[in-house]
Amino acid sequence: MRPQTLSVIGFGAFGRLAARHLRPHLPLSVCDPAARSNDLPMVDAARAARADIVVLAVPLPHLEGVLRAIAPHLRAGAVVIDVASVKVEPARLMLDLLPDHVEIVASHPLFGPASAAGGLEGHGIAWSPLRGRAHRLLAAFLRARGLQVIPTTPDQHDRDMAVVQGLTHLIARSLSRLGPLPQRLATPSFTLLAAAAAMVQDDSPELLATILRANPHAAAVRQRFLAEAAGVAAEV
């Protein structure tokens, strides 16, 4: 059997993280016209689409354009995996725009360059197979790398992430706007809160918009949280 090939389309912060951990295991190429030169093969979209496994690490607003560009070039049996922070919309786009002979997985790594600076061991990845059977082998491969593969559906993922990510980023950005946070008299609980905020404060505006706007459940959770916070403040 010939070695599996993999392409990463999008070489931003997460694309670089994925490439660093995947390149020791299989031949890997990168597609990103805006990426700086590196020692990995840089290819165009058509060539990237001919890989056995195609990882889409592009911002959500660019996903539809990328899918339309690669769809005519995907080989039968190829596996396309997205890594967006929301899942309902990417799942819909992939099912609508990719040919029937392509296998599809909607995924969301529950970590990033900051949280996985020490390695992947113990981190989770949300895993929503949409079409095909290769997802089982891929999940086994990820578990062998130390990841926890968490089965879910796109809608359930977005419901959970509306709280997990939506509120985390809302609180983190709000804290950052207060100015420098106290450190000398910080309690352990505040130190943990500040550390959590620091882990996401440098995320791109595109990621923040995806988490707070593109998640169909985020607005309702955010409104409920703000109402509860106002209620607590009014009671004291």
Question: What's the Cα radius of gyration?
Answer: 19 Å
What would the average pLDDT be, to the nearest integer?
93
Instruction: Report helical residue fraction.
Output: 40-55%
Structurally, how many domains make up the residues? 2
Number of helices: 10
CATH class category of the largest domain: Alpha Beta
In terms of DSSP E residues, the strand content is 5-15%
Name of the CATH superfamily of the largest domain? NAD(P)-binding Rossmann-like Domain
Low-confidence runs of at least 5 consecutive residues = none
Largest sheet, order of strands side by side?
A: 2-1-3-4-5-6-7
CATH topology of the largest domain: Rossmann fold
Shape: globular
| Number of strand segments | 7
Structural class: alpha/beta
The profile of the biggest β sheet is: 7 strands, mixed
**Gap between N and C termini, in Å?**
68 Å
Order of helices and strands: EHEHEHEHEEHEHHHHH
Pfam families: PDH_C (PF20463), PDH_N (PF02153)
Protein name: Prephenate dehydrogenase/arogenate dehydrogenase family protein
Domain Prephenate/arogenate dehydrogenase: 4-236
InterPro entries: 6-PGluconate_DH-like_C_sf, NAD(P)-bd_dom_sf, PDH_C, PDH_N, Preph/Arog_dehydrog, Prephen_DH
